[in-house]
């Protein structure tokens, strides 16, 4: 039903197969469609955006289109043959105070009209007190039990059933809810996100909720996020382990005259230019967009907003394939201080980082770009340093000697073989610490790019890492070749000083000639 085909940290590309045999690739963005108004038809989304899935509301269908749904199926109503997920309508409870339907009625309709992915009637927590949140969790769990029992009695299931995880910002409640659901035999999980969090840009809270849900349910089944809001958070929720997410913001923003970009939202009246080349924006100027009749303008804005959402999903997928999802996060985090805040908290969460390190890519088709100290906290960097320390360097030398060369120097294995045999060759001055010659030209060492300012700004940290590795390796003597370029001068001097402090016998070399000079050594510089 769900198969993971590529991974980058906790983000993954997967293939979801429904009981009816429809297939969609995750991370999957499902635009919300009102089944009555169908402002932008699902067919248009498929044709123009390659939409593989949409989500609509079972409760609205029950109240307004029940007979037609039973006759034509939900795919008939939407004129869409892709994956259709139906939300139970529990959200209406939050918005309008109640639903007049039982869990059984909602479940039966979803099965009968052929939803690909169905959600039992739940009680969304929203943003509320702990007491109320607890109540919503208990009521939701009771509804889930009723639904499961109903489905058991019915026999064959047509839908994949998603277990809604409630609890709002109360992380222990999310844990409790998810843990109880794990034994209920659902096909996937769906975390309820309180819309006010998004509107208030409380991304840090949202990210914590996702982590709580993911850690509770594990990684075997897909995790959906209800109400993912703006595309600026798509890379983040995917990196935290969300496989699917829906959003109505494309149309809600359009009705409010708001124009999406991948990093924010701009009011239409403030736009002098349309910073996008989608088919909508290519056809008209900002002034022309403003002058359209309201209904037409909403439609154009909604379509443009959808293009932005789908483009961002593709970008996220490519980043996963390239092993560069965290890099995309670093760039996107700069979209808004609140997003940066949420990101920094991700990068300071030791438990989460350890979990991410396990999924850090071990190979990549494209280079690794590091920018600043936040980059150095990336799970890939941490995992690589750890591997160097524990697998490659610990106990390596047993009292031997090391030759430390500047990271900027190129040394082929053939040339290295002309150096004295008892020397272990390591490169200094990299963000990963000391790199043994045998690994120097492998991933990620040979493909890592970073500004030289990073070395100066984080000198202490990088030196400490190198010294720790050197100490763990157990060398008693070090020959350090001074760098030819100024970039590494400070690094080299400090490294020599700290190693001496450690009691290591350090020789600083002006050139390799000093090491291999004499009989047969030739010109050291040319080694
Ligand atoms: Zn556009």
Short account of what is shown:
With 527 residues, the chain is of the alpha/beta class.
Describe the structure.
With 527 residues, this protein is of the alpha/beta class. It folds into two domains: 2-353, Alpha-Beta Barrel (TIM Barrel); 369-526, 3-Layer(aba) Sandwich (Rossmann fold), CATH 3.40.50. It has 24 helices and 20 strands. The strands form five sheets. The chain has an eight-stranded parallel barrel with strand order 4-5-6-7-8-9-10-11, surrounded by six helices. Helix 9 packs parallel to helix 16 and helix 22 (459-473) crosses helix 23. It is elongated, with a radius of gyration of 28 Å. Zinc ion binds next to helix 12 and helix 14.
C-alpha Rg (nearest Å) = 28 Å
CATH architecture designation of the largest domain: Alpha-Beta Barrel
Percent strand equals 15-25%
Kindly provide the name of the CATH class of the largest domain.
Alpha Beta
The biggest sheet amounts to: 8 strands, parallel, barrel
Roughly how many Å apart are the termini?
Answer: 58 Å
- The overall pLDDT, averaged over residues, is 92
State the shape: elongated
Total number of strands: 20
For this entry, give a set of tags.
527 residues, alpha/beta, TIM Barrel, Rossmann fold, 2 domains, eight-stranded parallel barrel, five-stranded mixed sheet, 24 helices, 47% helix, disordered C terminus, binds zinc ion
């Amino acid at each position: 039903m769900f198969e993971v085909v590529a991974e980058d940290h906790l983000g993954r590309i997967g293939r979801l197969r429904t009981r009816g045999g429809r297939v969609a690739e995750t991370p999957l963005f499902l635009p919300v469609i009102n089944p009555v108004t169908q402002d932008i038809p699902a067919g248009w989304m498929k044709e123009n955006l390659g939409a593989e899935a949409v989500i609509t509301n079972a409760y609205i269908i029950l109240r307004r289109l029940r007979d037609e749904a039973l006759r034509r199926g939900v795919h008939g109503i939407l004129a869409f043959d892709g994956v259709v997920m139906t939300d139970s309508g529990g959200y209406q409870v939050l918005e309008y105070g109640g639903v007049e339907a039982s869990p059984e009625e909602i479940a039966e309709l979803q099965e009968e009209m052929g939803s690909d992915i169905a959600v039992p009637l739940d009680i969304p927590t929203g943003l509320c007190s702990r007491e109320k949140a607890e109540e919503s969790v208990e009521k939701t769990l009771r509804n889930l039990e009723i639904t499961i029992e109903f489905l058991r009695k019915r026999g064959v299931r047509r839908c994949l059933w998603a277990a809604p995880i409630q609890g709002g910002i109360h992380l222990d409640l999310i844990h409790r809810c998810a843990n109880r659901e794990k034994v209920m035999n659902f096909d996937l999980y769906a975390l309820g996100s309180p819309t006010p969090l998004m509107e208030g840009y409380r991304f840090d809270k949202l990210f914590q909720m996702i982590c709580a849900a993911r850690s509770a349910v594990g990684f075997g089944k897909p995790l959906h996020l209800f109400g993912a809001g703006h595309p600026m958070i798509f890379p983040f929720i995917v990196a935290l382990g969300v496989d699917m997410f829906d959003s109505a913001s494309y149309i809600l923003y359009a009705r409010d005259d708001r124009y999406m970009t991948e990093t924010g939202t701009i009011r239409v009246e403030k736009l002098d230019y349309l910073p996008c080349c989608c088919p909508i924006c290519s056809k008209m100027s900002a002034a022309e967009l403003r002058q359209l009749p309201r209904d037409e303008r909403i439609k154009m804005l909604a379509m443009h907003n959808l293009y932005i959402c789908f483009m961002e999903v593709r970008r996220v997928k490519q980043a996963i394939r390239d092993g560069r999802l965290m890099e995309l996060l670093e760039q996107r985090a700069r979209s808004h201080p609140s997003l940066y805040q949420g990101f920094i908290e991700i990068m300071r969460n030791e438990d989460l980082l350890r979990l991410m390190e396990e999924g850090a890519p071990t190979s990549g088709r494209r280079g690794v770009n590091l920018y600043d100290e936040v980059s150095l906290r990336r799970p890939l960097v941490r995992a690589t340093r750890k591997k160097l320390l524990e697998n490659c360097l610990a106990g390596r030398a047993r009292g031997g000697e090391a030759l430390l060369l500047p990271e900027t120097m190129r040394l082929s294995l053939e040339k290295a073989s002309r150096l004295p045999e008892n020397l272990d060759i390591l490169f200094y001055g990299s963000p990963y610490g000391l790199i043994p010659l045998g690994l120097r030209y492998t991933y990620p060492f040979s493909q890592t790019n970073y500004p030289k300012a990073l070395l100066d700004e984080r000198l202490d940290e990088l030196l400490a890492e190198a010294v720790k590795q050197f100490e763990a390796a157990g060398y008693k003597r070090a020959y350090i070749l001074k760098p030819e370029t100024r970039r590494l001068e400070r690094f080299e001097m400090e490294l020599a000083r700290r190693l001496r402090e450690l009691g290591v016998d350090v020789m600083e070399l002006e050139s390799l000639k000093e090491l291999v000079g004499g009989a047969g050594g030739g010109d050291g510089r040319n080694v």
